[in-house]
């Protein structure tokens, strides 16, 4: 049996499948601060016998939450003399162009724990100034006295010659034998000091956080009879062994959302929809990304916070504070705001009756008739409507509106926030969102998806069979991956193709060895190549899929043409007459794993006339609409809006002008009438 578990800020979701076709799901409240409690509760709720489980794949927001809250142990970072403030200075960007008082986010590591080391390596790898070993001994003593739990080292140009970093690491190991040391040349052996240092700092602060969590979870699973392999969802869209995560925790930054993206890819692939906008609206946040050609959009400079770029491949996911638990408030100017604060799992929205009193999106959804208080989570939780009315009523008084108008306002605002995020990942990249299908998931995603599609003009929405646990489902569909990267600068017009090919072959061997170390059968391994190119004189690169053999006749010309096309797609312009340079190379080794079965709809029943209840849609009046149960819908069933379709874990709200049908894979395909 293979089990996928996704830990969110509000709920912990589980999906499992066995080789004999059995499947299981569960959704239980998350349990901060010890999220492992929620994992074990989800396994119990799904009645999983861990002795039958071969693989557990875990997606988690532990890393994301730690970065957002800056909850880190005491750590230190060593860098070349004169570059102590490089990360804090960044790229001279400002959070707001017209706000001279705008503040940058707090640093990952406080300045008092940044140490300078006399040393210098040139851009070509030559030693300009030898490593000062006496300084290293003094720093090691200071770190020992400060009782730091992790140390990172990032020297200028270490990607070209990592010798000084390795020597410094060895010296620290002598003085601090129990403290993990992270080298930037191992984290990201690429040009670009800001991204390399930021990523190394992230790894440094996370090693004391992720290690105990992963180790503690593994111990608890084994105590219940688990004897299989524990894997973690990686930010690049693959999965990594637990032992690897101890050493490379920076790859977990968007671990939770990455599983959902893979779930969207699996659903889209089954129905031939390779161009998707995946929208995951859970209890705490909303994550949005695009899928093109059946693959996620992977960024090279993904920012974990303002002007803090990562140097490792990361699915480009836009996360905003728009979830079911997002709190609605009135700002100093009397304007309604929704998020980013969230009620989370504890205390949760007011209607959860767990002590929460602030108005949230879920409370507004309940008041507008989108949710049935008796059927929430399939009837496992009863929502408290009077509590929701009281919470929204208090907000209404501050706005001078009635509670229903206020609830509509909350829904309108949160929908506009999510529509803006969709535009960010599509329009801002030169993509027309109307050319994509919107695939919503998470418990709250289908509730708001069709309204978001109306705002943007997207004509098709695909609601998967299990939207509330799609991230856990996607985790079970991930392959094992490893990225090997390096810098090789050369202008394509004069470059020796054989030299570039040799460097790719070195990286390929490195990536394949990493998969072998994680137990992947070489017969199940394949590789993908990516080159990061730019026009000579530019300061940013564009990743481009690369031919399998660059030494072959015409392969470099093909690569150059692909670059022009991708540049035009992203920025609306290309210049085929300008020289092109290759800067970085990346090889992704992929180890195939068993995939979950495609869902098939049940034969359906003859439920008779559906129940009805009053529902209020934005811009319209109250309507008495039919309430369909998804389990009763068979292949080919068609429903015209306005309507509501309920299932355990989620609800689909269908406005006027939309028609929903059930396809052969149990998806709900919503089409908007041409207007």
UniProtKB/TrEMBL annotation:
Superkingdom in the source lineage: Bacteria
Keyword set, alphabetical order: Hydrolase
Residue ranges constituting the Hydantoinase/oxoprolinase N-terminal domain according to the UniProt record = 2-174
Q: Does the keyword Transport apply?
A: no
Give the EC number.
3.5.2.14
Question: Could you name the Gene Ontology cellular component terms for this entry?
Answer: cytosol
Give start and end of each Acetophenone carboxylase-like C-terminal domain: 494-665
Give the Low complexity compositional bias ranges. 600-614
Provenance organism? uncultured Thermomicrobiales bacterium
Segments for region (Disordered) = 593-615
Instruction: Report any Pfam family annotated for this entry.
Output: Hydantoinase_A
The name of this protein is N-methylhydantoinase A
User: How would you classify this enzyme at the top EC level?
Assistant: hydrolase
- InterPro entries associated with the record: ACX-like_C, ATPase_NBD, Hydant_A_N, Hydantoinase_A, Oxoprolinase-like
Q: Which GO terms describe its biological process?
A: glutathione metabolic process
Q: Which residues form the Hydantoinase A/oxoprolinase domain?
A: 196-483
* Molecular function per GO: 5-oxoprolinase (ATP-hydrolyzing) activity; N-methylhydantoinase (ATP-hydrolyzing) activity
Q: Which SUPFAM superfamilies match?
A: Actin-like ATPase domain (SSF53067)
